[in-house]
Amino acid sequence: MASHIKCPNCGIYNTDKDYCTNCNTLLSYQKKRELAFAKEEKERKERERINKENSPSLYEKYKNHRFFLVRAFVKIIHSIWMAFMAIGMFVAWLISAVVA
To answer: Which keywords has UniProt assigned to this entry (predicted)?
Structure first.
């Protein structure tokens, strides 16, 4: 069965069309939702990109600081954190290897 949709812009009835034959206005609700979703997804990715650029990590922020003590402190803390994470990953691997 054919669907008849009245164009909200010009008032002409269209049969099984996504766009109005008279004024080329988008009529399909499904396409409207898809376009809105794509637009929201693009905006969300842009916000994430901006947030990532605007908020660097503590290490990234201070690794090239002009004072030597600040650079040294940040690199020591970063090294300790990396060692802690490596030990944690090894323990997790060891547990999973023993269980399997």
So the answer is: Coiled coil, Membrane, Transmembrane, Transmembrane helix
